[in-house]
Amino acid sequence: QVQLQESGGGSVQSGGSLRLSCAASGYMYSSYCMGWLRQAPGKEREGVAAIASDGSTSYADSGQGRFTISRDNAKKTLYLEMNSLTPEDTAMYYCAAVVGPLRYGGTCQFIYSYWGQGAQVTVSS
Q1: Strand order in the sheet with 18-25
Q2: Which of 83, 87, 90, 115 sits in a 20 to 30 Å window from 17, CA-based?
Q3: Is the distance from CB of 58 to CB of 109 less than 8 angstroms?
Q4: Percentage above 90 pLDDT, the chain
Q5: Are the beta carbons of 94 and 39 closer than 8 angstroms?
Q6: Residues near 58 by Cβ (< 8 Å), separated by ≥ 6?
Q7: Which of 20, 29, 18, 6 shows the shortest CA–CA distance to 75?
Q8: What is the spatial distance between Cα 18 and Cα 28, in angstroms, rounded to a whole number?
Q9: Can you tell me the distance from the alpha carbon of 75 to that of 93, in angstroms, rounded to the nearest whole number?
Q10: pLDDT, mean over the chain
Q11: Given a cut of 90, is residue 77 above it in pLDDT?
Q12: Could you tell me how far CA 40 lies from the centroid of its own chain?
C-alpha cells in the first residue's frame, strides 16, 4: 500500500522560510515523479513544483526562484524548501506521486495517483 506523509508545516512571518518533507513508503519510490501542490481557501489546487525520477525539476511561476524541490531516494523522502514566503503562500500543501515524466509548470505529466494528507503553511504579514 502506497503511503505519503507530509511534515514541516507551520506558521511563519512574511519573508521567512519553511522546509516541508514528505516520507514515502510501500512502493518503488525512486521510479516515481513526485510533486508538491497547494490549495488555499476558496482557490483551486495548484502545482507548485515537481521532480522526476532522474532529479530534473519543474516549477510553477509562483515558486520559481523561491522554492526548491529535492528528493532523497535512499530515505524515500521528498522535500520542499520555501524561502521569502509571503501571505499569498498560505495554503495546505500536499505531496503527490505518479509514474511518468515531468511536465513544464511545476507538475508531473500524468494525473497524480497517490496523495499525502497535507501540511498547513500559514504566513503572516
Answers
A1: 3-7, 18-25, 77-82, 67-72
A2: 115
A3: no
A4: 87
A5: yes
A6: 49, 50, 51, 52, 102, 103, 104, 105, 106, 107
A7: 29
A8: 27
A9: 21
A10: 94
A11: yes
A12: 14
Region of residue 118 (left: phi > 0; alpha: psi -120 to 50; beta: else): left
**What type of residue sits at position 15?**
G
Query: What is the reported pLDDT for 29?
Result: 75
For residues 70 and 57, what is the distance between their CA atoms, to the nearest angstrom?
A: 8
Residue-by-residue DSSP string for 34-69 = EEEEEE-TTS--EEEEEE-TTS-EEE-TTTTTTEEE
Cα(63)–Cα(47) distance, rounded to whole angstroms? 10
* Residue 121 pLDDT level (bands cut at 50, 70, 90): very high
Task: Quote the CA–CA distance of 60 and 75 in Å, as a whole number.
Answer: 26
All cell numbers assigned to 95: 505531496
Q: Up-side HSE of residue 9: CA atoms within 13 Å toward CB?
A: 19
pLDDT digits (tens, 9 = 90+) for 45-56: 999 999 999 999
Write the DSSP string, 91-104.
EEEEEEEEES-EET
pLDDT above 90: residue 34: yes
